Amino acid sequence: MKQISALKDSERILKKSGPFLVSKLIQITGLNVHSRLAGVPVHQDSFRWAPFYERPLIRGMEGIVEDGDVVAIVGGGRGVTTVKAAKNVGENGRVIVYECGEETLQILTNTVRLNGVEDRVEIHHAYVGAPETISDESKTVSVVSVDEIPEIDVLELDCEGSELSVLTQLRESDVRPRGITVETHGRLGVPRKDVRELLEAMNYEVRHVGIEYRPSDVHILVGRRRAERLSQ
After folding, report:
1. Quick check: pTM over 0.70?
2. Torsion sign across C-alpha atoms 182, 183, 184, 185
3. Full domain range(s) for residue 69
4. Is residue 95 packed enough to be buried (19+ CB in 10 Å), middle (13-18) or exposed (0-12)?
């Protein structure tokens, strides 16, 4: 039993350290290759190989996105879920992305081009939520209310603590996506319990997909509108 336990511990250590060691090795060798996050080529300064990057968020999003959907992503980041969503919606679908960070916006734009999905992705340098929550360094970005988001089928929120603000606006608006994926941030004052309760109050059936980052209490929730499930 001790040998089996030691073997499992070794496997866990290798799983966590392997991508880091590969990344460092490629950085040292100076090879001119693109980072790969969750299998998606990403354009950024230093190489990083992270096969498990945002796996729960991607799994949650892919579980509700269908061919031909219109998907809105609040917090585009490096563009990984944008590329995944763009491939899932196909040529007849569309992905609308809102990203407020200037440096991140450039990485996002380059990642979309690198993966050849720019024909179905619309990128906005904008913040979705209340203007008073915008940091000083982001004063130049546009502020978009939920009412200004076009009609969508799926909403993904990866907005680092603004989830409840956006969902509260969503509840008061006419925007009713079929599915919602939310990355909750407990240490930023947005625990998954509060997000779950709000989604359920908005008539969504909610399930917990997984833990993104345990030390910061980051979880992934997926909500599917109950009305649609009852009509199937």
Report:
1. yes
2. negative
3. 53-231
4. buried
